[in-house]
Design brief:
615 residues; five-stranded mixed sheet; D-Maltodextrin-Binding Protein, domain 2
């Protein structure tokens, strides 16, 4: 990185004395500062300081109209920052990827067209030590909460302390790595980070930039950690205008939104109103879209996608369809083994049950052959492990004592089962692995040889669309003498059981970016496996994985991150923690002709914030 002098603006009321004091503080830190309008995990931001807009929006998009959206599930809380309850914002953001920063904003805003770059939002400027031991934010003087209260340094400090102590596990993990946070100017706050093992987590300045900022004054007489259906004031472009518990949330664009003219926001947030209806299952959701009750629908089932494309071609139905390419890694979606359960602690059992999954039959009979099998936790990207390990990947594996020949060789593809003969061959291999693990068949049932305990487990389903997949898998398992019960529960019960890891097997997906980092510890780290509410649903506790996550988050170059991530992919893949499923080759979208979208989509894929209503 090129060292730069500390950047201080003058003429803003702080005067030369404060500028000198800040300069002395910088010198005392012992590391040069990199200052500017944005920061990137590696390299420089794509857009320079004088940019006026991003290049995946229509800057002249008209304002107005209503966008009607849908979510499968339910909710009982409007507080998305705590573990308790089922928050309305959880599925809206986590699974549909759209409408981030709708109500609650962060210090910096992520660009969906770059691996990991942030630009100024609540903070107009960011300064970062060259060794990333500290980061400083200067708040935008125009920033306001929706009740008109200015966003202050006190709000930032309150948010950090509160989320660190009472927030969701990922917030407690990330913000607990801060050694000290203090006000260092009228509108400035500096975070200093802990050095663990002599190293500072290089991603922390960006993670602090993505910290949601909460109104300290609002929580002065209100408990933070309770569920609530009373809207919490944010600073974003929309306010919550109506709530029907478990059924609907309505957002209204704030005409006084303080950040509407920021370059990073130009061309975004064009609808006057956004309504989100909640449906009990994906079938009901699709029927609502076909009936004209919803304006936008992202489909994942090929059968239904063929139906939607047919409706668009026929012309008698007012819908449009689009297949949008996505430059992000394909999601790792799979049947997840909870290795906290004794029956799944043996990798031979996990490998055996993986052999009983018949992707070819499922893809042809359920999905018209439209899916491709997932072969990596970062499939389709430069971060995926493919072929023999090169020198850089081998070095990363050796650094965590995970350089055994199996990890250096090309990763084995998921077992294929072409036709019934292929499935029978796989089941024979599975039976051999189970015998090696001490299981034997008695009276048609697989039992532990020494104890007679049967190999039975439950597949917990939270989405009705996954039920037939699980039932077909269970029928194949019966041929091995394994009994797998399929149990469907409602979304609230499903999330509660996931938070407590109260399941044997689930269907789940991890969405990783082109710049993975600290979220990996939340997904796959040993500490997360022992902490309720994380996404380490597989329960993996591996020193090698922990070490590679550390290498990824401390990588000083893009090349170093790629090598360490490819190494992690190999270790996760070799562990057989999930039975990998499949993914679509593009994003399948259906939408009302009343909607318009930019000609270009960002690297991440479609961005609903950039769409608008046709006049």
């Amino acid at each position: 990185m090129v060292n730069k002098a500390l950047k201080c603006r003058t003429g803003n009321g702080r005067g030369p004395i404060l500028a000198v004091l800040l300069g002395l503080l910088w010198l005392a830190s012992g590391t040069p500062a990199l200052a500017g309008h944005g920061i990137a995990m590696h390299g420089d931001p794509k857009f320079g300081p004088a940019f006026s807009k991003v290049d995946f929006v229509n800057p002249d998009a008209p304002k107005g109209g209503t966008l009607r959206l849908s979510v499968v599930g339910s909710f009982d809380s409007l507080n998305p920052f705590i573990v308790k309850g089922a928050p309305a914002f959880g599925p809206l953001v986590a699974y549909n990827r759209y409408l981030k920063n709708l109500v609650y904003e962060t210090l910096l805003k992520r660009s969906p067209d770059e691996p990991f770059t942030l630009y100024g939002l609540l903070a107009e400027e960011v300064e970062m030590a060259d060794d990333r031991r500290w980061v400083r934010f200067r708040l935008n003087p125009a920033a306001r909460f929706q009740d008109g209260t200015p966003v202050t340094v006190e709000d930032v400090l309150f948010s950090w302390r509160t989320l660190k102590e009472k927030g969701r596990p990922n917030h407690r993990l990330y913000y607990g790595m801060v050694d000290k946070a203090e006000q260092t100017g009228e509108r400035e706050i500096t975070f200093q980070f802990k050095a663990l093992g002599g190293q500072v987590n290089a991603e922390l300045p960006l993670l602090i930039g993505l910290m949601p900022i909460l109104p300290a004054h609002y929580f002065k007489d209100r408990p933070f950690e309770r569920t609530t259906l009373t809207p919490i004031p944010g600073s974003g472009p929309y306010v919550i205008d109506g709530v029907e518990a478990g059924r609907r949330v309505v957002f209204k664009r704030d005409p006084n939104y303080w950040g509407k003219d920021l370059p990073i926001n130009r061309g975004l947030y064009n609808f006057d109103r956004v309504s989100v209806d909640y449906y009990r299952d994906s079938t009901a959701e699709l029927e609502a879209f076909k009936a004209g009750l919803i304006d936008f629908h992202q489909e994942s089932d090929p059968t239904r996608w063929q139906e939607l494309k047919g409706m668009a071609v026929e012309g008698g139905h007012a819908i449009r369809v689009a297949e949008i390419p996505n430059g992000w890694p394909a999601p790792m979606r799979g049947l997840v083994f909870n290795t906290r359960r004794d029956i799944f602690s043996d990798i031979r059992v996990r490998r055996a049950l993986t052999l009983a999954f018949d992707f070819e039959w499922i893809n042809e009979n359920f999905f018209h052959g439209a899916y491709v099998r997932t072969k990596s936790y970062l499939d389709g990207s430069e971060l995926a492990a493919t072929g023999p390990a090169g020198k850089a990947v081998a070095k990363a594996l050796a650094s965590v004592e995970a350089d055994q020949p199996a990890l250096l060789a090309p990763p084995a593809p998921p077992p294929a089962a072409p036709g019934q003969a292929g499935l029978r061959a796989n089941l024979r291999r599975a039976a051999g692995l189970l015998r090696e693990a001490g299981w034997t068949v008695r009276d048609g049932q697989l039992v532990k040889a020494e104890s007679g305990r049967p190999l039975t487990f439950e597949i917990l389903i939270g989405n009705a669309a996954d039920e037939r997949l699980a039932l077909h898998f269970a029928r194949n398992l019966e041929r091995l003498g394994v009994h797998a019960a399929v149990r469907s529960v409602d979304s609230a019960a499903y999330q509660s059981r996931l938070d407590d890891y109260d399941f044997d097997m689930i269907v789940y997906r991890w969405d990783l970016s082109l710049s993975p980092g600290n979220e990996l510890a939340f997904y796959f780290g040993s500490q997360a496996a022992r902490t309720p509410g994380t996404r380490n649903y597989m329960g993996v506790q591996s020193p090698a994985i922990d070490g590679l996550i550390t290498r990824i988050v401390s990588a000083e170059s893009r090349e170093g991150l790629i090598a360490a991530t490819r190494a992690l992919d190999r270790v996760l893949w070799a562990g057989n923690y999930v039975i990998p499923l499949y993914h679509a080759p593009a994003e399948w979208l259906a939408y009302s002709p009343s909607l318009a979208r930019p000609k270009k989509a960002p690297l991440e894929g479609y961005l609903l914030e950039a769409w608008w209503a046709r006049p």
